[in-house]
Write a structure and sequence with these properties.
This protein is α/β, with parallel strands linked by helices. The chain contains eight helices and 13 strands. The chain is globular and about 45 Å long.
Length: 234
């Protein structure tokens, strides 16, 4: 299984940060280190990092991955056309293997157990309309709604996904959304009802997609610094 870290263009918070969002320090590490180390701790040895025009700092930080015992490859996403679009750039890298996708602005405070694809990791959210909100029928996922104004539950998809190797065929058939993006929720909905899932405990995952969430991440990281520090120093 191969890993993909999506560190796309920082458009929504643009102009609010003095430095690249991915290099804001969360406790003792830059933000980008946490999703990267999530992949490393899952035992993934081959990792592709999707970068944008400002991704040079990430290359300088992580380089070829030898320091972390992994092999890192880089791919360039010129335009922010969605997470699914970024994943599509990994087809040659995947070489027919299954993939684990982690988003560059997600922090997991515990190791994530790798599962057979397709698999989602869900979490409770007080603002489900900001994410891919999950609609259940009993214990089964019936639909995932991307940034829905009236979500059917408070469970959302977190920033980690496991897909089978045919995901690239799925991406090629996706249609652009109203946001002019190829949505990752459309990938997830394709695999329903066969999609399995794990519900993470509260405090295991949080997102850092805007300044308020970044400050919240820094605060939470300090409260949980022993746990996060143990992950970051492996």
């Amino acid at each position: 299984m191969r890993g993909i870290l999506v560190a796309g263009k920082n458009t929504r918070p643009h102009g609010r940060y003095i430095e690249n969002k991915y290099f804001i320090r969360i406790y003792d590490k830059p933000l980008i280190m946490y999703p990267f180390l999530t992949l490393v701790n899952m035992g993934i040895k081959d990792i592709l990092i999707i970068i944008s025009s400002d991704g040079g700092s990430i290359i300088n930080l992580l380089q070829d991955g030898i320091e972390f015992g992994v092999n890192i490859t880089y791919a360039y996403q010129k335009d922010p056309l969605g997470i699914a679009h970024a994943i599509g750039k990994a087809e040659d890298f995947a070489q027919g293997d299954d993939i684990v996708v982690v988003l560059g602005d997600s922090i997991f405070t515990k190791d994530i157990e790798i599962k057979a694809p397709p698999h989602l990791y869900l979490s409770h959210s007080d603002c489900p309309k900001d994410f891919g909100a999950v609609c259940f029928y009993g214990e089964n996922i019936m639909k995932i709604e991307e940034r829905c104004e009236n979500p059917k539950s408070k469970f959302v998809t977190t920033g980690i996904y496991i897909y089978p190797n045919n995901v690239f065929k799925v991406i090629k058939k996706l249609k652009v959304s109203k946001r002019n993006k190829l949505e990752i929720s459309d990938i997830n909905n394709h695999y329903l009802p066969k999609m399995a899932y794990t519900i993470l405990d509260d405090g295991v995952w949080f997102d850092t997609n805007d300044p308020e969430q970044v400050y919240n991440a820094i605060f939470k990281a300090r409260l949980n610094h022993l746990e996060i520090k143990a992950i970051s120093q492996r």
